[in-house]
């Protein structure tokens, strides 16, 4: 078995949880991401030397983003599927040597009913039934700051792992200015209370207004584009829009095409803040390839993508002046 959560026996007794299964038990159907951001690949063992920070444990997504050249970013397009955040459950589909084919729970896709598929290094996953039970039975802390540090002390001075917005961890207790959370791989740790919101269950997240969605989206303006990115260390276009909605308690499909199919169509002259705008090949009549979020006043915010000559950070742009303006395919609403 892989490393299991090291919650103390006393804590388990207090919480009334079952004991950790004995060694030698068959692999469970569900495991948990044990790094800040796990990147899922199209095929196993196709990572490049520059990708070492992304496939390690601990992973360092900030270093990975900083060390890639523009061309190396562009070259990721045929290599990557999506990303999953710390503690996120994944369903095990297949094992191949040091790699595991998983379905990322919480990222809907028509490709697999269990979640978004991709290959991740086995060393980035944790088999932790105790953590899984805590996820199902405890309130959770939702990281709402762009990033937040997991710490070994409630003062937040002993930084351990930098987590992305939208990371969700079970809450064990609270102290002044801090929240004690369970982790899948290292026992109880602390997050600054200012960096999270605590909810008893996901359905308790307040239903957002368009203004709420826009406020969330604008917080990431200037962040660099990363193909397959779903974290505050780098987004792709649909990873950005799905994360903005997730942070506001609404789950939408992971990819642009399914997002368009899932929402309620809205005409261009009826756009409201928070609506999603889509672009498609063949002057808007072909397959959808891009999505942005309308923010009002004729503007949208999106992660526009990198070309081989220019890096394009997440930006606010006029809808009619968007680089894909001639490929406008329509808009949808989820509110």
From TrEMBL:
Q: Which PROSITE patterns match?
A: NLPC_P60 (PS51935)
Database matches in Gene3D superfamilies: endopeptidase domain like (from Nostoc punctiforme) (3.90.1720.10), SH3 Domains (2.30.30.40)
Query: Which residues are in the NlpC/P60 domain?
Result: 207-335
Keyword terms: Hydrolase, Protease, Signal, Thiol protease
Q: Where is the signal peptide?
A: 1-26
Pfam families to which the protein is assigned, alphabetical: NLPC_P60, SH3_YKFC_2nd
Family designation: Belongs to the peptidase C40 family.
This chain's protein is named: C40 family peptidase
